[in-house]
Amino acid sequence: MQLLQPPLDPDIYCNERCCAVFATLSTVLCDLETLLCLLVLDGYLIPAPYYGGINSKTWLYGGMQPVHVPLFSEVTNEESQPFQLTVGKLETAYQKAKEQGIRVRALILINPHNPLGDIYPPQLLRECLEFAHRYKLHVIMDEIYMLSVYGDSTFTSILSLESLPDPDRTHFMWGFSKDFGMCGIRVGILYTRNHAVREAVNQLAVFHGCPGPVQHVLSQFLSDREWLDNVFFPTNRRRLKEAQNILVDGLAEIGIPVLKSSGGLYVWADFRKFLKSHTFEAEMDLWWKILDGKLLISPGKAFCCYEPGWFRLVFSDSVDKIYLCIQRLQQMLHDKMDEPVPINSPPKENECTELDDSISDNYINTSVDDVSEGYSHMKKIAVF
How confident is the model at residue 338 (pLDDT cuts 50, 70, 90)? Predict the structure, then answer.
């Protein structure tokens, strides 16, 4: 298989020891995560909410059990922003999993985050890597939105850090579908120094091969660095920021706040005041009403969110469609729905077990891409 170079700094391009493998995949990075998880056992830590498609791939392919690290919108004394990840939360989830006999073998991080749009600062990345190194965990870093960062924010790739605490257990992934708007080109990259992982992926890649002509086209595409750096990426970032501003401003006008974000193609919006009750059943009821209003957005339940009422809205579309989205939301929420009820207090962390029962019974293990087709009934979720 011909190996291609990811669009990263030339100093960290692949060599014989650190190879990037291209593969056409049904869901690019989820299957790469599965390939890595085949080498480990039992469970993996993952901050919640997160891209729900990871669940089905890692469980169906590798039998891996997600161990949630719950993040909440309420800001405590130890936090500076909603849904903030800390090493303390990772430690708590790890220890509770250990007490329940779950052997955690990996940590999956999405940066920029999906669905929060958050970007992990370098210090947090180092702390997470040190945490994983302390417990000998593999770190699977999903950076599929790494080039879709806009505004004044600075993105730090895990590969740009001066040193890694455990290079042999640190794995990087990226794909063309998001940053280059190539949803039909299912091509992903795995960058790893682990020989065993590379050999396993190369064996499995036989069934997910990337056609030679596609590799050739993409290699030619990446070779024009001047156009990419001076035209494509600046234009793409500018358009994404403009689209985000239009959607955020429009949502604010109809009373829907959003989480501040600077990465990805979406916003994480707070619809809680429009729920008839503070339950995931009410969230799904609202989602169906929004769908009946000819809008397809993703409910928080699909991302294993612990607070009902949060939705992800994608803005990487034409301006006229964003305005149409806002118009339909305003009409549906304010003209056709009953009066909203006050927001109840979000569930506390020690209430997560009870929350997990209700979520599992209502099938949260679903890819966001499959929301319109209903939810699957898998229940292999450990929630702490």
Answer: low
DSSP 1-48: ------SS-GGG---SSSEEEEEE-SSHHHHHHHHHHTTS-SEEEEEE
Strands (E), the chain: 19-24, 43-48, 65-70, 104-110, 138-142, 170-175, 187-192, 266-270, 298-299, 310-314
> Cα–Cα distance between 334 and 345 in angstroms, integer?
23
- The answer to whether the CB of 328 falls within 8 A of the CB of 254 is no
Q: How much is the pTM?
A: 0.81
Q: What string of H, E and C letters represents the secondary structure of 99-119?
A: HCCCCEEEEEEECCCCCCCCC
Backbone angles phi, psi at 192, to 5 degrees: -145, 150
CB neighbours of 314 closer than 8 A, spacing ≥ 6?
265, 266, 297
d(CA 171, CA 192): 5
CB 185, CB 211: distance < 8 Å: no
Name the least confident of 157-166, 170-179, 209-218, 325-334. Answer: 209-218
From its phi and psi, is residue 94 left (phi > 0), alpha (psi between -120 and 50) or beta?
alpha
Residues ≥6 apart with Cβ < 8 Å to 224: none
Residue 175 pairs in a beta bridge with 188
Cite the active site residues.
51, 142, 144, 178
Please check whether residue 197 is in contact with residue 191, taking contact to mean a CB–CB distance below 8 angstroms.
Answer: no
Residue appearing with tokens 């993952």: 46
Whether residue 303 has pLDDT greater than 90: yes
Q: How remote is the C-alpha of 240 from its chain's centroid?
A: 18
What is the rounded CA–CA span in Å between residue 301 and residue 304?
5
Closest CA to 283 of 259, 310, 257: 310
Residues 6 or more apart in contact with residue 304 via CB below 8 angstroms? 48, 49, 50, 52, 55, 66, 68, 359, 364, 381
Pairing mode, strands 170-175 and 138-142: parallel
pLDDT at 325 over 60: yes
Tell me how far apart the alpha carbons of residues 216 and 53 are, in angstroms, rounded to a whole number.
29
Strand-pairing partners, residue 70, are 48
CA trace torsion 308, 309, 315, 318 (10° rounding): 130
* pLDDT band, very low/low/confident/very high, at 382 (cuts 50, 70, 90): very low
